[in-house]
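sorry for the late reply, my laptop died twice this morning and i had to redo everyting from scratch. anyway the thing you sent over, i finally got around to it. pasting the sequence first so we're on the same page, its 236 residues, then the predicted structure underneath. double check i copied it right bc i was rushing
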Amino acid sequence: MARTTPITGMDLTGFTEREPGVWTDEQGLVLSVHFFDLVPDLPAPPAEADRLRHGLARSVARAGAGLIEAAVGEVDAVPAVRQLVKVRRPSGHGQVFLGSWTVPRAGCSTVVKVQAGEGPMSGMREAVILNQVGPERYFMPHPYGPDIAGGLPYHVGDHEQWDAGFPDHPLTLVRAALRRLTPGITLHPAFKTLPAFGGPAAGGPAAGGPAAGGPAAAPAPAPAPAARRWLRRSQH
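ok and here's the structure:
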């Protein structure tokens, strides 16, 4: 992770900077920005949404976590991938929920991530919804592929339709924060004009790693320019 990123603007209302590139708020959210100067570790480009979602779901499950949802969209008019992921707490009970935008280019990427974890009283949302819908309708096969197994189970309790009933749940907070932040994110013009991400590099980490899915990886795109001296201006 580089301390400088191509993110030049973001609405940080309610957040306090704790260290360069990391902010927190009073609800327990942690916001961070990242820059990776290597071919993105994505199984497919945003234009191949079905293959992308399938590969991401498999990769997350293999890591012992769960992909709640993945969608293709735009950040400052650049194609990007939005993910919501749940992971087990490293210690104790409960889960941590992570929402992110990955903005991939041919040879690099930038990421905006928001996360929040459950407190001592975990599982209340799941228990209430399970009791309401019944176990036969609660747990479901993963919508991104019947072969996705392992990791944390996919269930309807994570669906957005329940957020209004659990306004203080970390998943609700992460989802809402990512939605609020997205329109205000601006990117450095030089980053926006870099060659688009066309798929994982043949033989590279993204091609052979657990996120790879579907057909064989496309040939590596032309390398991006070497200059990576992004200027992170003061953010409002």
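The longest helix spans residues 49-62.
thats about all i looked at so far, will dig more tmrw
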